[in-house]
TrEMBL record:
Catalytic activity: DNA(n) + a 2'-deoxyribonucleoside 5'-triphosphate = DNA(n+1) + diphosphate
Known EC number: 2.7.7.7
Transmembrane intervals: none
Name this protein carries in UniProt: DNA-directed DNA polymerase
UniProtKB keywords: DNA replication, DNA-directed DNA polymerase, Nucleotidyltransferase, Transferase
Domain of life, per lineage: Bacteria
Origin species: Sorlinia euscelidii
Family to which the UniProt record says this protein belongs: Belongs to the DNA polymerase HolA subunit family.
SUPFAM superfamilies named among the record's database cross-references: P-loop containing nucleoside triphosphate hydrolases, post-AAA+ oligomerization domain-like
Length: 336
């Protein structure tokens, strides 16, 4: 059964009602996090060798055998399959049609929409098929708030907005960064933008900020060096696209205010979060260089870049680098 996004939390919270789970999508960290949540409801100790068996690609041939075996100490067994693909389908169907009540959990990152495995499992009422795609916008902000709320940590709005713009599209990395902030935070005071930038001021986020600021200011050499540092530190193409969108929107905010009669300093004071001093000169150069029409066109092109990077098999890093080069070239690269 295909599970709609709004029902995902409910289904994951009632994992014992299902015979199987297929977790698919491009966010490997989110797939693993949800798999761990399912496993924890089926078997209290995920390291129990009598009730949990993990099958990597080399062990896929044992799926049917393990799925029909009974636990020596009682209770349902969990057959946890990683790197699931279409060749598993015949064995999986026989296992699910058998008399055993064990739970089969399949991690299937990158499973195509036309996959036979995915299509067949979506038709079964006893198997939950859940998409695990990179979170963005409101869904990313909601996920971050859920993590912080669970630890009873408050975060300022500006800090949350900055976090949402720089964190990569990988739940595992997001979880690591949030845990770092939780350790850093004091329960008596909310995390401020300065706190978050100090703690998450890793080379990836700093390099992305430098890359986008340099590109919009026309500093090609600086932008190229910064984006290569960010990629070397693990920045994903989608994260690069989002960093570009964030930088463009901030410049556009100031340009709009100036178009309506505000002075540059007045328009700049309206930015939330405030302008970071390390990129202030580059930002002001970008404001002088770009007009509102060109910024809107660049924003639209950046949204197209993010969508293109999410397509399976796309040359996403090449697309991201080309887009950065267009931003360096300036408004003329986005003229009609």
């Amino acid at each position: 059964m295909k599970i709609e996004p709004r029902r995902t939390d409910h289904v994951l919270g009632d994992a014992s009602s299902w015979r199987g789970f297929v977790l698919h999508g491009e966010d490997h960290g989110l797939i693993r996090e949800r798999a761990i949540k399912v496993a924890g409801q089926i078997v209290p100790d995920k390291g129990d060798p009598f009730r949990v068996v993990v099958l990597d690609r080399e062990g896929h041939a044992r799926l049917e055998e393990e799925a029909t075996a009974l636990s020596l100490i009682g209770g349902r067994r969990l057959i946890w399959v990683r790197d699931g693909q279409d060749p598993l389908l015949p064995m999986l169907e026989r296992a699910l049609d058998g008399a055993a009540d064990n739970v089969i959990l399949i991690e299937a990152s990158g499973l195509a929409s036309r996959s036979k495995l995915r299509s067949a499992m979506e038709k079964r009422p006893d198997v939950a098929v859940i998409a695990c795609y990179a979170e963005e916008g409101r869904s990313l902000s909601a996920a971050l708030r859920t993590m912080f709320d669970a630890a009873h940590i408050r975060v300022d709005r500006d800090a949350m907005a900055w976090l949402s713009s720089v964190l990569p599209a990988d739940r595992a990395v997001i979880r690591q960064e949030v845990e770092k902030l939780i350790l850093f935070a004091e329960p008596s005071a909310p995390l401020s933008l300065d706190d978050v930038q100090l703690c998450i001021g890793d080379t990836r986020a700093e390099s992305l900020s430098n890359a986008t600021s340099s590109a919009l200011a026309g500093e090609r050499a600086q932008a190229d060096a910064a984006i290569e540092r960010a990629i070397a530190d693990g920045a994903a193409p989608v994260a690069i696209a989002r960093a570009c969108s964030y930088a463009l929107l901030r410049v556009l905010t100031v340009r709009h205010a100036m178009d309506e009669g505000a002075s540059p300093s007045e328009a700049e004071r309206g930015l939330r979060p405030p302008l970071f001093f390390k990129v202030a000169d580059l930002f002001r150069t970008a404001v002088r260089r770009w007009d509102s029409a060109a910024l809107l066109a660049a924003c639209s092109a950046t949204q197209e870049l993010e969508l293109a990077c999410k397509q399976t098999g796309a040359p996403d890093y090449a697309l991201a680098r080309r887009h950065m080069a267009r931003l360096c070239f300036g408004p003329r690269a986005f003229s009609a």
